[in-house]
Amino acid sequence: MSTETIDPRYVDIDQWPTIRAVEAMLEGQMAAIAAIGSQAQAIALAAQAAAARLGTQGRLVYVGAGTSGRIAVQDGVELYPTYNWPQERLLFLMAGGLAALTQAAEGAEDDAHAASAEIADAALGPHDVVIGVAASGRTPYTLAAIAAARAAGALTIGIANNAGSALSAAAEYGLTVETGTEIVAGSTRMKAGTAQKATLNILSTAIMLRMGLVYRGRMVNMRISNEKLRLRGEAMVRDIADVDMAAASHAL
Length: 252
Fold this sequence. Notes:
Layout: H1 18-34, H2 40-54, E1 60-64, H3 66-77, H4 79-83, E2 90-94, H5 112-122, E3 129-134, H6 140-151, E4 155-160, H7 166-170, E5 173-176, H8 191-210, H9 227-241, H10 245-251
Parallel strand pairs: 1-2, 1-3, 3-4, 4-5
Helix pairs in contact: 1-8, 2-8, 3-8, 5-6, 9-10
Domain SIS: 50-213
Protein name: N-acetylmuramic acid 6-phosphate etherase
InterPro entries: Etherase_MurQ (IPR005488), MURQ/GCKR (IPR040190), SIS_dom (IPR001347), SIS_dom_sf (IPR046348)
């Protein structure tokens, strides 16, 4: 797997001047983002299919282990405040449970049985969409969840960072963002993680676009929960309805 390979260019990075190391890491991050370009069409197709499945009742399910799981959860939790996506229509399945968000449970990624059981407990159906994320593309927990979800009739999307991965093959929509070797070998929170986060950002936003939750480039369905968001909401009403701020404030 390329994400686990040692890149000879960086074998002595610990001896480099700090600025040289930082510049190399920045170059790697930029390359990771650029790698998503090859998957633009696949992301668009996956987003369209997901929106069509979700309708008014379907659930979005995020699945992952370790770093990939934490990145997946980070994407999903933003959908409620940003688009008022119902919390009951979001499900997070993470190896080791959600406690692994703050305390690493790396051994849990091998527990395929737990993943299958969690998918069964979720009682998924054809209106649900499951997004599995794994840099290696072969994490047993994530693979088992995708296989069980697909067998239950859910739409499955896999995001991996190694070519020819089992995850991309197992999911109905396999997104392979090849980020190559990490500057610190195996540290997939870096290039792979950056690409995963950006891919999820794009995918979930495209789904929300197709669900009608964006109007004229604005998050018109957002939750107003603080003063900053109230001001944002008032500005949206003012601009879209072509009224003054007093009228916009009264409308909210």
